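Structure tokens please, single chain.
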Amino acid sequence: MTAAVLKRGAKPPKAAQNRPTRVSGAQKITRQQLGIGGAVLLAIAIAVMIAVGVPQRIWNGFVEWTAAQGWEVRHVELTGAREQERLAIYAAVLNGPSNAMLATDLDDVRDRLRALPWLADASVQRRLPDTLVIEVKERKPVALWQYHQRLAAIDITGKVLTRERLERWNDLPILVGAGANARVRDALELIAATPLGRDVNAAVFVGGRRWDLRFKSGETLALPDQPGQARAALATFAKLDGQGPERLLGGRFTRFDLRLPGRMIVAGPAVAETLAEAEKARRAAAQAQKI
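Here you go.
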């Protein structure tokens, strides 16, 4: 190997000028590696600034700087939304004071999402540098609530979900009256506990304490105000309805009252006919006695 001595400012030999520069594998750095390294350094810087308690003004400036570098909410990945309007979800997500990724409070975003009618819960995560990943869990309609002649779909907690396109849930039971939505679980359990559940069209909340059941055939059944007594009365009624050649339900009666223990008060055409026949028999007996 020969060595050449170059004077300061002298040009290198021609052969040295044309010889390509070799870079070892260890010296090659890709753009992806640079990006990862930058992200790591940025994360370390954030951790250090938080640890040492950087003044709020400096922190705000740093957040603005990161947003200018691309760390701001530009994309929202949403899953789980079917009934809740997506625009309302996006509006709730982006309703914070800033779109800077580091200034986005995930708990606040989650609270705003849970305030929407259909959303029972939500998961919110950052995907740096510019994406929020949102997964929502929607409420399920279990009944229709009628109050002041207006219908609304409600969930098991009684929360109003929507008043639009209710024909999709025509098979759901109807709860009627003030406060009936808050007692939806009690009403559904009462209806489900009887074989007559499929015959029930609506449950009317009376006086804020008890239920009247309206059947699809037109009759009304008044039940006691205590839940245990109401279930027992309904079980008794179901047993009586299944006895004999003719059912209690079917048009011969209009109302059954089981609020008094051991008694059933009925009203309807069959009662009127029975009373008329009894009165006719009484008059005939009285006339026979005169003869």
